[in-house]
Write a structure and sequence with these properties.
Shape: flat
Distance between the termini: 103 Å
CATH topology of the largest domain: UDP N-Acetylglucosamine Acyltransferase, domain 1
Largest sheet: 12 strands, mixed
CATH superfamily of the largest domain: Hexapeptide repeat proteins
Structural class: alpha/beta
Number of helices: 4
CATH class of the largest domain: Mainly Beta
Helix content: 10-25%
Strand content: 25-35%
Number of strands: 40
Oligomer: single chain
CATH architecture of the largest domain: 3 Solenoid
Length: about 350
């Protein structure tokens, strides 16, 4: 793929600062780029590298200044990068069809336009729509559904009746529809409560490697449209992840908790069950969320606090040893003063 900077700027709704006739054919990181390459600046900490990169052009934000370089100014360089990468470095399309070595049970419905690799097992009653791609080792349980143009990478497991929408990406090792963690008399008899619900994953969701999504005890666990979930996340039974939400790696979300639209959960955060996190709320990495969070609120810490309050506490922590010494010294002085001014017993 070769495109001039003028063509790229037109495609992205940007402008060119430099030679618009310059042609690029690859996209590379700023340290590795050379002649014929387009690079990008999405983090200001790397701004100093603008003058040393050997790239022929750089994607930058509108306020970036760098003399002597060809710049393509766009409102959102990172978003622009996402638009350009598939054009310059497209994924190779596989020929549709069921390859030898795949096991398709009688009663399964597989589109002839799907791609099914060797080692895939599709159970009776399951449905695989056109354009779906199932890599080796994928297991599709009874009556599960995989929507059009979805991609299931190796070792993805869909338990029975799981529903996967269109253009969903499930990375290697994802487990959808495993038992929710439900036991009566916990710590005593540990009586298992049958988990008879299911998981629904809406269109344009992406789930990272080795993430697990439990099915509902009753009803559904629901990952709504456009949500993005990182690697190694645990989502319990009957959880709802709102549309366009982001859940970063190693997060654990307990049963029946509901996230609104556009919620962002930082890495290693833990959320207790049966709470609600409002639309556009943000939870900082490592937080422990123990109660509802209103829409738009930013929280941090364990147990969680308003982010600004947590920052105040964190600012004090390095000073605690010094404050402890000061408090001890003041306590001693107070006792000395009390001894000096204490009235003497006239009988002594």
């Amino acid at each position: 793929m070769k495109k001039s900077l003028e063509e790229i700027a037109y495609l992205l709704g940007g402008t060119v600062d430099g030679d618009p006739e310059t042609v690029v054919e690859r996209i590379c990181a700023i340290d590795e780029a050379g002649p014929g390459d387009l690079t990008f600046l999405t983090n200001t900490k790397y701004r100093r590298k603008l003058e040393t990169t050997r790239a022929d052009a750089i994607l930058v934000s509108p306020d970036t200044v760098c003399h002597g370089q060809n710049l393509v100014r766009v409102p959102d360089p990172y978003g622009a990068l996402g638009t350009l990468l598939p054009l310059f470095h497209p994924e190779k399309k596989e020929a549709p069809g069921i390859q030898p070595g795949a096991l398709i049970e009688t009663g399964a419905e597989v589109s002839p336009e799907a791609v099914v690799y060797p080692g895939v097992h599709i159970c009776r009653g399951a449905r695989i729509d056109q354009g779906a791609m199932l890599y080796p080792g994928v297991f599709i349980g009874r009556e599960a559904v995989v929507g059009a143009d979805s991609v299931l990478y190796p070792r993805v497991t869909l338990y029975r009746r799981s529903i996967v929408g269109k253009r969903v990406i499930l990375h290697a090792g994802v487990v959808v529809g495993s038992d929710g963690f439900g036991f009566a008399q916990p710590g005593l008899e540990n009586v298992k409560i049958p988990q008879i619900g299911y998981v629904q994953i809406d269109d344009d969701v992406e789930v990272g490697a080795n993430t697990t999504i439990d099915r509902g005890t009753l009803g559904r666990t629901w990952i709504q449209e456009g949500a993005k979930i990182d690697n190694l996340v645990q989502i319990a039974h009957n959880v709802v992840i709102g549309a366009r939400s982001i859940v970063v790696s190693q997060v654990g979300i307990s049963g029946s908790t509901q996230l609104g639209r556009g919620v962002i959960i930082g890495g290693q955060a833990g959320l207790v069950g049966h709470i609600k996190v409002g639309d556009r709320a943000m939870v900082a990495a490592g937080s422990g969320v123990h109660k509802d969070i209103p829409p738009g609120q930013i929280v941090a810490g364990a147990p969680h606090l308003l982010h600004r309050e947590w920052l105040k506490i964190e600012a004090c922590l390095p000073k605690l040893p010094e404050l402890r010494k000061t408090l001890a010294a003041l306590s001693r002085r107070l006792k000395e003063l009390e001894m000096k001014i204490a009235p003497k017993d006239p009988l002594l």
